[in-house]
Write a structure and sequence with these properties.
By secondary structure, this protein is mainly alpha-helical. It has one domain (14-128). The chain has three helices and no strands. It has helices spanning 15-23, 61-85, 89-121. It is elongated. The N and C termini lie close together (8 Å).
């Protein structure tokens, strides 16, 4: 039975720098190349270092996290402003609708970049290093 390769601590990719690079929508490997080719379209590979990025499985995660964050930020604002100033409900709805859309549009690509960078740092899905060529020999 062949031994399974163990990952050492020095082999691990640092999570925090990778996620900060992803938050800035940069390649988690080099930090220089853009990770997105449009608003949410992920590049197949980094144009600077060539790191393959097509392995990501962000799916609906960034949208769920964006909704969670925006809801937790704006719900207290809505409650506080309604109790403190008693604005007309239509004014409050208009202001909060604008704030919700603006905050969501700002956060969504950044959270997607950070999630892809987390997957890269944790070697999830296809981001794992391929085994050495001589590892198949028992």
């Amino acid at each position: 039975m062949p031994a399974t390769p163990q990952t050492d601590d020095e082999d691990d990719r640092p999570v925090r720098p990778a996620m900060l690079r992803g938050w800035r929508r940069r390649c988690p490997n080099c930090g220089a190349g853009p990770i997105l080719s449009g608003y949410l379209s992920v590049r197949d590979a980094c144009p600077v270092c060539g790191e393959a990025l097509h392995h990501h499985r962000a799916d609906d995660g960034p949208a769920y996290l964006t909704i969670l964050i925006v809801g937790h930020l704006l719900a207290p604002v809505m409650l506080f402003s309604f109790v403190k100033w008693r604005p007309d409900p239509l004014v409050l709805a208009g202001v909060l609708t604008f704030a919700t859309v603006a905050l969501s549009l700002y956060l969504l690509p950044r959270i997607k970049g950070a999630l892809i960078a987390l997957q890269w740092a944790k070697r999830m899905h296809g981001f794992a290093v391929p085994p050495p060529a001589d590892a198949s020999h028992g």
